[in-house]
What we know:
Helix content of chain B: 10-25%
Protein name (chain A): Nucleolar
Oligomer: heterodimer
Bound molecules: S-adenosylmethionine
GO molecular function (chain B): histone H2AQ104 methyltransferase activity; RNA binding; rRNA methyltransferase activity
GO molecular function, one term (chain A): snoRNA binding
Number of strands of chain B: 11
Distance between the termini of chain A: 79 Å
Structural class of chain B: alpha/beta
Pfam families (chain A): Nop
InterPro entries (chain A): Nop56/Nop58, Nop_C, Nop_dom, Nop_dom_sf
Amino acid sequence: MTEQTPAGDAGWFAGVERDDTDAAAAAIREGRADAPADWPERALDAGFAADADDYYDALHEATVAATRRAVREAESADDRQLVHAIRAMDDLASTTNELAERVAEWGGTLDDEPGTGVAYARDLAARDPETAAEERVVSLAARVVALADERDAEREFLERTVSTVAPNLASMAGPVLAARLIELAGGLESLAKMPSGTVQVLGAEDALFAHLRGNAPSPKHGVIYTHEYVRGTHPDERGSAARALAGKLTIGARIDHYAGDYRPEVEAELDERIETIRARRDDGGAK
Amino acid sequence: MSDDDPDLPAGVARRDFGDGPALATRGESVYGEPTGDGWRRWDPHRSKLGATIEKGLDTGLSADASVLYLGAANGTTVSHVADVAGPTYAVEFAPRSARDLLGVCDTRSNLFPLLKDARKPETYAHVVEADLDVLVQDVATRGQARVAVENARFLADDGRLVLAVKARSEDVTAAPEAVFDEALADLREAYDVLARTPLEPYHDDHLAVVATPR
Ligand SMILES: C[S@@+](CC[C@H](N)C(=O)[O-])C[C@H]1O[C@@H](n2cnc3c(N)ncnc32)[C@H](O)[C@@H]1O
């Protein structure tokens, strides 16, 4: 019995050692059988488990491990969706702005009270064109509005996805910065494997290379600069703030990738740390 | 326990959480439900099985019953089942939901999560044991009766199927009655229907069916 491969009519425990959770989880995920059987009894007969309680304990461990792994794999595929979504959002944003400018410029020649941006395009798109030229402007404005709506939908998708893919990172960094970091790293797994010093300067590659070539100071922060904890900290302390933030974001990305549960204490530690850094400045009174 | 109610499965009681008697089981809290004295409320509005019990159908759920639960989602209902029953196998195919379900399993050693497709029982027949007492199904997708028929292989001869049929999963335009009739007809391929009831006022357009393998 024990030498059976998990095929045909063998249970998940066939050929698996009682304490080998990896093998058991793999058997749960990959095995199959046409019909169920009295697996608990068969496992006892095969010497896999000592008694029924022992069997069910092993089954619990194996099914939880198998499901945890399968969930993680499925969700790590989601982080790739995230990368595409944030790139699409960027493309939409720049195209929208470019065309909105065109609309404003063109609209200005036909309109007594021209405006700017997407708001103006929205305004124009709702009008009834009277001339052939107006027809073109109004139609173009409608495209701008549609692109802007798509950009917003992309962002909404991103916000929803990132908080399930990376709950800790998303809650500390905010959804857009979290997605941006995942994109720059090339996925959540690569982000989780980066030293925090690298995370700190992600997105500042140009400045970093200039520094390595010897013609610039080393950059203190990359995209994490957009975070209020860096931007809103006094310039003298920004380096410390960026280091502290990058440290906690790295820990968050690791928990997200390896465990997946949300741990509010990491975020609380970050808040505290930033408070301390900012207090140094306030207490010192200098500047 | 002083709360024995002859109409309720052992392990399920009516307790007062501040607004009159309500179904309850004993176990670790899962979704912020009211708790007291080790009991936690089983809200029939959030659980079709809870509603089925509330409507007085005999589901076959009992202490130590072995159970296969199809469509476990984030574990709201199956957590109560595992509080009451013995070995409880929980099948769910959405990873997002299964992640939450894992949290529910942490405190319930008799609950076994399986990230599997209920339409493919051969992918979990090497794990789920034969001769189960209860098969609970709440998948809310097309072909619900077929799923129940495919999974009849897990039930003991005197086991029970407790099925929630959702009218709108089959056909958004058809009248619920027509959908229910068709589902019942499909079920008869493998089951004898013992009882059924609409789940109003707890769940609209849902029919609960209790059946046994034929
Ligand atoms: C209405 S919800 C179940 C709610 C749950 N029974 C409760 O009361 O807590 C339906 C669930 O069935 C799952 N589902 C749908 N089709 C499925 C299938 N073929 N295999 C496994 N799960 C499925 C869905 O992902 C969803 O989580």
